[in-house]
Amino acid sequence: MTNFRKQLGNYKRNAITELVAIASNFRQANIAIFHEFVHPPTGGGHQFMRGLWHQFELRNIKVENNVLSHTTRACLFNTFNYLEILGFSNT
User: Fold this and answer.
1) Is residue 46 packed enough to be buried (19+ CB in 10 Å), middle (13-18) or exposed (0-12)?
2) Which residues are paired to 34 by β-bridges?
3) How confident is the model over 8-20, as pLDDT tens digits?
4) What pTM value is reported for the model?
5) Rounded Cα–Cα distance for residues 35 and 66 (Å)
């Protein structure tokens, strides 16, 4: 059963990757932030990322979350949130 779940997870990630790739053809942004945002109240990391996003928008920098579009010039990637996808344990 474990192999089945692992393989199903791989198919799910591949499908999500393909959908994101298709959607990115229709988006435009200067910077992409890969971070799993949660609603306040939360810790300092989330507060910092929300504040950073807000400052980018104040400077008319187009920001997108968890997507790379064809106009994205920079990417901030919080690896802690994606350790499992990258093949590392989060424990």
Assistant:
1) middle
2) 77
3) 667 777 777 776 6
4) 0.55
5) 7
